[in-house]
Every structure is written in C-alpha cells, then in structure tokens.
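Reviewer 2 asked us to include a model.

Predict the structure of this chain.
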Amino acid sequence: MHMQFTEADLAFRDEVREFLATELPDDVRERWVNGSLIFPDRDDAVRWQKILHKKGWIAPNWPAEHGGPGWTTSQKFIFECETAEAGAPPVIPLGLRMVGPVIMRYGTDEQKAQFLPRILATDDYWCQGYSEPGSGSDLASLKTRAVADGDDYIINGSKIWTTHAHFADWMFALVRTSTEGKPQQGISFVLIPMDTPGIEVRPLITLGGHHEVNQVFLTDVRVPQANRVGEENDGWTVAKYLLEFERGGSFYTGRINVNLGRLRKLAAEAGCLDDPAFQKRLAELEVEAQAVSVSELRMLSALTTGQNPGASASIIKLRGSEATQKATEMTMEAAGLYALPFEQLEQVVGGGNEPGVSTPDEASSAGRYYGFRAATIFGGSSEVQRNILAKVSLGL
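Predicted model (structure tokens):
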C-alpha cells in the first residue's frame, strides 16, 4: 500500500524504529519470530508490554485521559506495522483491546479506578469467558448461570476455548442471570477473579501442539455483584460492543505483511516464483492485504474521533483472517516436506546438519498453519461476519 506520510509521520516512524532496535529484547523477538504461537507466552508478553508501558506506548487506541499516547491515525498505523515487521510480539488483546474499552464505556467510576491502571501496566492478566460447549458462534444460547445470593452471584457452568486461562488473574465472562424473554435478554457481563474457589482450568492442546486454550469449569463460584459491568440482563449490549473491538482491534496489516514476507522468502528459495500460477495467487493475496490496510485506516480514523469500530470491524475480521490463512497455506505449499515439525522431519530426511533439514522458519510453518485455522472462527466465524454485514451494511 502506498501512503503519503508527512514529515512528522516519517520522524515518528524513525523514532519507533530506533525504540524497537534498542528496547525490544532479542530473546523475546527470536522466540516470537521463530515460534508458531498465535499469542506470545505470558512471560514474554508481560515483559514486552511493561517496556511499552514505561515508554507510554502500550495503548495506542486508549484516550489520553486513561493513559493513551494521543496519536494520530497515521501514527497508530505506523506503530502497528513497524512493531510487527520488527518481530515484536503483539500485545495480548484481552485486557488492553477488549475489556479495557468496555470498562471505559460501561464501567462504574470505581471499576475504572480499580481495573484500568492495572490493565495499562499489565499488572492483571485477563482471559475471556464467552464460548461454551454448544454455544460458540451462537453466544445467545449460553447456559452458564449466575444466581443472585445477597450481594453476590453464585455461578455454575463451563467456558471453552478460553485463551490463556491458565495464566489469567481475571476473566470477563457472559453469564445468564435470567431465563425470561428472548435468549439475548437475561445475559450479564461479569468480572471474575481466577483464584476464586470453584474454578478449575483444564488444558486443551491444539493441533499445533501448543497449550494456548482451555476449558474452564465454574462450580458454585461466588462473585460480588459489584463486579458486573453494565446493568443486569443487559450483557448482550456490552458483549456486542466488546466484539467490535475484538474483531476490529487485531490490526491484521502487520500480521499479514509478516506472513507475506515469510511466504515470499520460502517461495523464492523453493523456486515457486517461477510458476505463473503461484505468482498469480501471490499477487491476488497482496491485493487482499492492501485492501485490509485501507479498511484498517478507515477504522482507525473512526476510533480517533471517539467512534466505535462498527460494521467495519466485521470487514477487517473477515478479510484479515482469511488473508492470513491464505498466506500460511501458501507458505506450507512452498515449504513442502520441510514444513513438517522438526521431529517428524528428522525421521524422514535425517537429523543433524545434513542437507535438507528444515530451517526454523520452514519448521514452524505447520504450527502457524494449524494455529491460524482458528482465525476464521474465534471472535466470530466468517459466516457470522457475513451475516452481520448483510444485516447492518446492506440492510438484508
């Protein structure tokens, strides 16, 4: 994508590059660049986010009154692209890009004072309790129940695909507080301390061999009603607001560009660029990446003026996740046999330093491919995004 940056923008870009060159820990960068995780490990994420917080750059989309840097739209775009291309791990979005904006919008003054500074400083680590067995894309069918008991709720149920629940200090969760009326009515948005008695976290190992997601069981978990965000039974409104930030806050441009860089490198080494059909597919993917960049700039402009992402979040989530998947698919194709995990590859072509053993980038291709299979599901499947766009944007 060609952009006409101002001199001030270019000076800011140089400042970001210098900061990344001097402050991004080499070991954190290496683990992220050569790994295949969707989210960085907690220790690396917290370490990097505290460096960003010290600089004042941890929350580009937060308003200045809550600790945001007050950047322009172009500065936010530059920062996201430069950090991705420098190999910096992305910030964990659950606190900074998801529950943080919700608390700003719907939280009480007490909740803002309690949670926002700790989210900003990465002193609290969050997970999301939305999906349940049998209630994924159809969140309105969730069954985890919260029953009022004095000033508390007693919560029973389970949540699944809960990213980093085994690391989290807090969960923001949707729970059913009423069975009256439509399914969307009777849902509340509650903040739950993960050290509360009655919470059990069981790991779910992904196809890539990683422990990133979990199933969480809640048995007679007692939570103060003061931890509810928004009105009781109005959690659906809060949840939809959060999903706009989840879907439109991932900033796919940098992620796609990094995956495109890996793809071009491996494709050149493997001779795939000599194939006209492969070249055509690569060109089409690059056009898709540019379209996502333009959409993100529109969304960032709206955020700068205080608007929420709206339907543009669904466009970015839909096209960004699908373009990222295509990049990982084509990388697997270019790597061929050498995309196998290293242990499997040793059995096929031998180990040690013998010719033919995959590079770290090739060997991690499979993990990235498997990991990004979920990109068109989490945050709302592609089918859900198309339904939203048909209803909201096209009026169908």
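The CA atoms of residues 82 and 241 lie 28 Å apart. The longest strand covers residues 211-224. We have added this to the supplementary material.
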